[in-house]
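We include the entry.

. . .
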Amino acid sequence: MKYQQRLNKVSYAVSLCLLVSATHALAQEDDVIDEVVSTASRLQGTAAAVVEERKNQAFVADILGAEQLSRTGDSDAASALRRVTGLTLVDGKFIYVRGLGERYSSARLNGAAIPSPDLTRNVIPLDIIPASIIESLSVQKAFSPSMPAAFGGGSIDIRTTSVPSDFVAGVEIGAGYDTSASDGNTFNVDKGGIPSILQEAIPRYRGDFSINGIVDRLKLQSNENETAGEQARTLNRQLLLRLPRDFGVKNESLDPNYGGQAYIGNSFEEDLFGGTIGFLASVSYDQDSDFAERRTAVLSQDAAEDCSTQLVTAEDAASSCYNTVTDSEITTINERLNGVFNLGYRWNAHELTLNNLYLEDNEEESDIGSLQSPAGSTVFSIPGSGRANATQQFVYEERSLQVTQFLGKHTFLELGGIGVDWQYTRSKAKTDIPTDATFRFIDSYDQQGNYIGSSVSGDNNRAIYSYTNMDDRLNSYGGNMSFPFMLKGMDIELKAGFDVYDRARYYTTSSFQVSNLGSTPINANDGSSDPLLNNTFLTDDLILNSNLTLLFNEPEIPDADDYTAAQKVEAGYGAFDVFLNNNWRLSGGLRWEQFSQVSIGTSSLIFTPEDLNLIYSEQRIEEGSVQEDDLFPSLALTFLSDDNYQVRASYGETIVRPDLREVVPVTYFDPLTDVRTFGRVGLLSSPIKNYDLRYEYYGANGDNYSIAAFYKDIDAPIETVLRIGDEDYSATFINGETAEVYGVEVEWLHDLTYLAQGFFTSGNITLSDSEAVIDPALAGNLTNPTKRMTGHSQYVVNLQLSYDSSNGEHSASLVYNVFGERILAAGLGGREDAFEQPFHSLDVVYKYYPDFNSTVSFKVQNLLDESQEVTQSDIAVRDREEGMSFSVSYQYEF
């Protein structure tokens, strides 16, 4: 029944589109038209340049301008791009183009490659790019020789705000509220990272913090006062005492969301050369608070059709669908600081630009969870046995991206209009997690389900402290030269260029665990205090008078959980663009690209030459190395009609390569899937053949429509497969044999003034399908060796109904987005694939312009109050509430 309800929402949305089209057709049947008045709305007028750019592209592309971003109220690049035809947003960060996962898309900043501050992916999380610094977003869906060959679904170019031609200045302040975030569990953040005494202890004790390890390493001897073991325990206690042990957790009202920005820019004439110098500076700060209840479950392989998804009664526990169920309360407080400073110089047909961008994204998150195991290997539940395993996790993460770009554009009119553009970019992404502490308890309940106390069991991993650092640096430079000329009635442009970037990433993580192994359970709470305070059980008195031991939780060599990686791409291309009789356009060329990469797991336990030789052995280096050298052709043919329409057809060959971390044999937690993930040595790249066909119509009044078809043939696609554990899932990667994805896209911008003055509609619909075939030899116990591709949605719908008042004082938009269910990961052992269910996003944005300088904005997001849900075998295995959000802002331009 729930599926039918979701289908109906999509049907309503599509019916609205058809209704608008039908009304338009009926209106055209009127015999008499006394007068035609063409008026441009605020969006239609400012979007003209964007539409013109798309129209003039040689290859299929979609463009979003700054006004379109403002219209939808999207605050960052990620949320804005989900409005583009065929694009869907995953985890609020990553863009899927035409149903293909984030690995099939790439993002560039002003045409340059940049690193990613995301710990688990090469591609940059686009939520870190604020809308306030974006001038336009370009999504090219058909491959051209001037773009990187690592292309599958689309290449995204983020164009930042340029230096203004006149004086501009403004300020904006705003505040917001989320219905799910009235109260949350906050904690005191420790930003100090690993205590220095622990850093020094790792080489001192060669990573072995056990009592026997310290005795052996220091060659301790018993004396009349203490045994060698007692001396070692004292040293171990000194380490444990230095860890943060009181996080001050409390449930309290969360601060409302708030933020502000300011900018100023101007241009000046200079007398020395007669050019123009300009600058633009901006700064913004935002803080958002969020609270969500999440359920994550592992489906039982023997679940009956009438199994229970609830855990309220003992009967529910006895007939549960799940091995384990974890219910969590997640509180997130995110703050972002962004700064931009650009300089520009323009002289005749020459332009030089220096762009400086700094983005900082800090997030603190508490996760208070309770795990029950109604059908696991060890059976326990609150209604069944009065027990649950409690977890309290506190994480603070700092992400930053720093980019410096030198850009040049030159047109040499005296040389026949030869054009040259170039860029040199230095960028650095950095992620630090100075706090990641997890505490585990056994909670006890009475027969009525009332909490009565918590204890710490006598084994390892009762408290875990992890510290993570990732540094990703990338240098990029490239240039293009174009030469236009005419030959026998043909306008011809020849183009050539090069593109080089080198990248280095270093990732380290250190984990320490508090062990109570072999000792009696510790009473953490007798039921008289708030369970949120259970993490304070590690008191000085307990540490000094118990057998608790701190251990360094690092894999033994040659296993590793750190890695280092280097990557270099060198490319060159030649291309042509030919216009024949103003009706035909033929574009294409050839790109040569050499790709080199080395990814090696490493360790902080390298203390001897033997350790070094094991980690950096010739075999491991060879296994972690990739060297590819290939040619990538591209060809596009466009028919340009005299009746305001054009038809494009294109073909291109590209490739998609594994992420740096996917080819390293280390384990990491993937925040996108919420599962532990294992890298796999030997993953292959995936060559792709791309076919595109698109019809575009551009009306004189600003209306435009397009319909497109696409087909992609993929060799050795990289697929994610689940591993099933008793208490949780894990995942890894394999290469399938083949895959294909195909579909159609429809897009429109249509004026509705014939129905009501000031109204217009825009939107797009994508319908597609895919199939991935996995070799049975690699499939193992994969339930469906032939299936849809991971991350693919069979439909994507974007609808927008907008209004601009005739006096220019009011504008409003109702914005709807939905994607079809998509495979999160392939299922194993008879369990079906895990599907993320459709999320129906309905937002409303209203703007009031009281005078020429001021703008008041009001925005409501997720009006339908939808939740995120993942199902497996039609049973929910993950559910997270999102809540509705309200925000208001005021902007003043001087």
